[in-house]
Write a structure and sequence with these properties.
Elements (H helix, E strand, L loop, with lengths): L1 E3 L2 H11 L5 E6 L5 H13 L2 E6 L9 H5 L5 H11 L3 E3 L3 H4 L17 H5 L3 H16 L3 E5 L3 H13 L5 E5 L19 H6 L2 H14 L4 H11 L6 E9 L16 E9 L2 E9 L4
Parallel strand pairs: 1-4, 2-3, 2-5, 3-4, 5-6
Antiparallel strand pairs: 7-8, 8-9
Helix pairs in contact: 7-8, 10-11
The protein binds adenosine monophosphate (AMP).
Amino acid sequence: MVVYQNISEVRNYLKSSKGAKNIGLVPTMGALHQGHKVLIDAAKAKADLIVASIFVNPIQFNNASDYEKYPVDVDNDLGLLKAWGCDIVFMPQSNEMYGRKPIVEINHGQLQKTMEGKFKPGHFNGVSIVVIKLLNIIQPHSVFFGQKDLQQVAIIRQLIEDFSFDIDLNVVPTSREINGLAHSSRNRRLSEKERKLAPLFHEMLLKGKEMLLNGMTVQETVSTITAEFDDIEKVSLEYFEIVDPITMQKIHQFNEEQSVALCIAGSIGDVRLIDNILVERLS
Ligand code: AMP
């Protein structure tokens, strides 16, 4: 496994090793865990040269303290990537990626007006800019993102189409602990007591799904699940929404012929977590 911090060096290396290779890119912010491993595994199944990037992208944080508290564990990350079979790691410093602050701003229209876009203004602008930069630097044939960040996937799907990137987007199902908690870099900031509370988000997604499948209306489901969070000490709900998994717009009526996503975000103590599950269309 080779590790590069400079754009020009990783470009040169990739140019010299291109040939018939199918390059797969897995973008990450480090503090790696099982959720990242499933992305590397998916990339290995499709591509023959696996590039992982590790970059805590400052411009996608709308909250300075969230950025400062973001866990960093480079030695451990490199050990994991090597063990997982990654070929190349690109881990630039912030000034390598942003010698000066980008002047472009990307407006994703309706896609950024709900959920993460609404609660974290500017977040998706930062995500899209870094993803475009990484796609231009690495020039992969395929790129791998987790379903865990479903709205991010919707934004990137649109970005690839809008900018005509010749890249195959792969969405990898969310990996979870046995108790249902989605693996996340932020989980390591949870205290022991908070960790016991954290599976609640996934439990509520499953409960919401069951309610819909049992014929409850979307409105009844949303208000019942939202009310479940009243008065739980240390847990606060930001949103629970039932949306179209491509447009990210709220749906008002559910039928089993359509696919929907149940999405949730909230905090346990001061750790913000998000999760979602899909109810797939019956085919
Ligand atoms: P992050 O390092 O949190 O920016 O995540 C990097 C990539 O890993 C993103 O595409 C995430 O959606 C994906 N990811 C994070 N957690 C999980 C998980 N539990 N299961 C699957 N993919 C995940």
